[in-house]
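Hi there, hope your week has been kind to you so far. Do you reckon you could talk me through the fold, stretch by stretch? Thanks so much in advance, here it is.
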Amino acid sequence: MTPARVGLIRLLGSVEMARAYTLATLGATFGSFAIERMTSPSTFATIILLLCALGAAILFVRREEISLLRFAPFSLLAFLALTLISMLWSTDRADTFFGWLWTFGFAFLAITVGHLRDTLQTVRAIGDTLRVLLVTSLLLEILSGILIDLPIVFLSIEGNLAAGGPIQGIFGTRNMLGFIAVIALITFVIEWRTQSVVAPVAIPSIALAGFLALLSASPTVLVLAVIVGVVTAALTLVRHTPASRRNIVQWVLGAAATASVIVAFALRHPIIAWMGAGSDFSTRADLWNQILDFVAIRPFQGWGWFGSWQRGEYPFTYINFLLDDHHQTALNSFFDVLLQLGIAGLLLFLILGAVALIRSWLVASVRRSVVYAWTPLVLVTLAVDSMFESFTIVGAGWFLLVLCALRAGQSRSWRENIDAANTGVIPTLPSQ
C-alpha cells in the first residue's frame, strides 16, 4: 500500500474528518434554500452527490466499526424501497426516480452522520450550524428591513423586520423559519443543560432562536412551542420518577395525551379562531379535501413518489388547477405520503416515526444524561409540524427524521440483542 493511500485512509477515518463532514452536511442540509438561490438547483444537487460519495468512502474506511444489522432501521429501508417501487405505477417514472434519489440522498447523509457522531456530538454540531444560520438570517433581515428598506428578492426576504414581521430569514418562508427556530431552541437548551457550551453562548443563542420564532409570525410556532413545552415537562416528570413507579406514570401520561388530542380535535374551531389562523386552516382544509378525492382513486398505492410536487405532473397540477392555487406540497406530511404512496406508504411512514419516538422516549426516560431528551423532543416537533407542513418528507425535516430514527434504533432495538448474542455483550440501559 502506497504512502499516499495510507494517508488518505487515515484522513477519511480521522476524528477531524468526521467533524468537518458533519458540519458540511448540516450546513448544506439546513441551508439548502439559500444555496439553491445563490447558485442553482444543479449546483446544490452536485453538493449533495459529493457529500454522499464522501460519506460512502468514510463509512467504507470505518466499516469494522459499523454493524450491518444496526446500519439503518428496517422501517426506513422499507419506506425507501416503496418509494422506489412506486416508479412502476407513477405518472412520470423519471421524476419519481429523481424524487427517490433526493429522498435517498438526504437519508444516506443522516445515516452517515448518525454513525460518525454520537448523540452529544450531533447536538453540538447542529447547534453550531443553526447558530450561524440564524445569525445570518437576522443580519440579512436587518439589512433588508432597516438599513436598505428593500426586499432581497433572490432570497425571498420581504424586509418586514421594522414592521415586526413576518420574516423569513434564509429559509424561504416564515413557517420554515419558525420550524428551524423551534429545533434550534430545543438544541440550544440541551447544549446548555449538558454544559456543552458556556452560558454566554447558550443564553444569547436561546434568545436569538426565540426572537426569530416570534418574528416569523408563523401560526404553527405557537402550537409547536406549547406542545414541546408540555412534552418536555412530561419527560422531566418521568425522568425524576422512581423506577418502581415509572411504568404507571408512563401509562397515565399516555392516557392524558390521548385525551388531550381528542379534546383538541373537538375544540379545533375555537382554537383556530383564537390563534387567528382561520384563513390558513381554511386553505389547508380545501386542499386536503381535494387530495382525498384523488386518494380515493388510488387508495393503496398512491400516484408515485415525487417528494415536493413537480411542475407539470398529474395529479398535482390538476389539484392546483381545481383550487386555483400553486401549492408545492400538501401542507401536511401525512396527506402528502397518502397521496403519493397510498395507505401502504402512510402506514410505513407512521411506523417509522412512531417506533423511533417510543424507543427514544424510553431511552430518555432512564438515561442519566439530558442529551437523550433531544431525540424524542425533535421527533415530537416533526410529528406536530407534519400536521401543518410537509417539511418532514423533504430536505432538513426528512434528514432529522432519519437521524432521530437511527439514533433511537442504535440505543434500543432488537438488533442490539442479536449483536449481544454474537459478541457476548449484554446491552444495558443505566437507570437514574
